[in-house]
Each structure stands twice: as structure tokens, then as C-alpha cells.
Design a protein that fits this description.
By secondary structure, the protein is an alpha/beta fold. It has helices at residues 22-33, 53-63, 85-99, 136-149, 157-160, 174-183; strands spanning 10-15, 36-42, 68-74, 104-111, 113-114, 123-124, 130-133, 165-171. The protein has a four-stranded mixed beta sheet with strand order 3-4-8-7. The chain has a two-stranded parallel ribbon with strand order 1-2. A two-stranded antiparallel ribbon has the order 5-6. Helix 3 links the parallel strand 3 (68-74) and strand 4 (104-111). It starts with 9 loop residues before the first strand and ends in a 5-residue tail after the last helix.
Length: 188
């Protein structure tokens, strides 16, 4: 997003709408990105329980503007950093909504990171469709959003894992996304 500030970004955060700490920070980030956005209130705490895909889909549809998109970025349904359950459910729900024509986009990207099942900090997946190294100034801006706007400690996980290299799985149609899910053995 920082690489393309000219785009008309809309950011959907499915969790923490009522969080008195996180919600105002999200709004500040929207202003920094010159983006529009909205928050939902799904649980994403450390002891989260699995959530029915239909519930996640319903929340996505209630928050997402009803329009066609050029690009949707989402979490990876195969996990990314630290196998965050809610992120995986969101990634699967977005792909399922696209397959069922409930959301429309020309292209969908899903984050492509892995951490060796928590053996090391997340790193890009070498076989991902898209790889990009962030210019130092862009990475620094991203890092400052994590440490200064969101207030994560510089020695903490969030700051230490702010990637200088990014990777994404890229899909030009929902059929390709579904084939990838099957190949990766990811259950809808």
C-alpha cells in the first residue's frame, strides 16, 4: 500500500472494533495511508476458538463495500506468521466468497510467509508468485507505523518481524485460487 499511495485503498479489519486501544490506532493508520476503511468485532485474542466459515463470510460481506475491485489483498488460508487461526479463516472465507461470486475482483493476492511452525521469524516463501523488496524509506515508514502508531515494542515480535521483503500468492481468477487451495490441501 505504501508503494502505491495513488490507489484508492479500502481496508477492512474484521477484529477489534470495540478495542479502546487498537481501534483509534487503526483510524490513525487510515489517515496516514489516505485510505478508507472499517472495522468489525470478531475475536482474535490469543485463545480464539475456530469460527464457522459462514460467520466469517457474513462479517466480510457486511463490512466490504459492494463494488468491483481491481485487487484484493488478504491473509493466507495456509497461515503466514505464527499460524494465526483467524487470519487463516479470513483467507479461506475471502477465496470462497470470490469463488461464489459474492465478491468481485480482477486479482487476489494472499500473503506468502512461513515460520517453520514457529521455529524462526516469518520469511517469504520462495515459490510465491510475487516477491518484492521494499525500498528502505518505505520499509522505515512501515516500521514506524508498527512501532510508533501501533506502539509495539522495538524488541517485540511485531517490530522484529516487519518484513523488508514481501511475497504474495497471486490469483487472476477464483479457479486458480481454488486449484491452489487443493494443491496445498487447504480445507475451505
Amino acid at each position: 500500500m505504501l508503494l502505491h499511495p495513488e490507489n484508492n485503498w479500502f481496508i477492512v479489519c474484521l477484529c477489534r472494533k470495540d478495542d479502546p486501544d487498537r481501534a483509534p490506532k487503526f483510524k490513525k493508520v487510515l489517515r496516514l495511508y489516505k485510505a478508507n476503511g472499517i472495522m468489525g468485532n470478531l475475536d482474535d485474542g490469543p485463545k480464539q476458538m475456530p469460527m464457522d466459515t459462514k460467520v466469517v463470510q457474513k462479517v466480510i460481506l457486511s463490512l466490504l463495500p459492494k463494488q468491483n475491485f481491481d485487487l484484493i489483498l488478504t491473509h493466507s488460508p495456509s497461515g503466514e506468521y505464527n499460524r494465526h487461526l483467524r487470519h487463516e479463516e479470513i483467507g479461506r472465507a475471502v477465496m470462497e466468497l470470490w469463488k461464489n461470486k459474492k465478491i468481485n475482483t480482477k486479482e487476489l493476492w494472499a500473503f506468502a510467509f512461513e515460520d517453520g511452525n514457529k521455529k524462526y521469524y516469518p520469511q517469504v516463501i520462495k515459490g510465491a508468485s510475487i516477491h518484492q523488496e521494499l525500498p528502505q524509506a518505505i520499509w522505515k515508514e512501515k516500521y514506524l507505523i508498527i512501532t510508533e502508531v501501533y506502539g509495539f515494542e522495538k524488541a517485540g515480535f511485531e517490530a522484529q518481524t516487519t518484513p523488508k521483503n514481501e511475497a504474495f500468492w497471486s490469483f487472476e481468477n477464483s479457479i486458480a485460487a481454488q486449484e491452489w487451495l487443493e494443491k496445498e490441501k487447504i480445507q475451505p
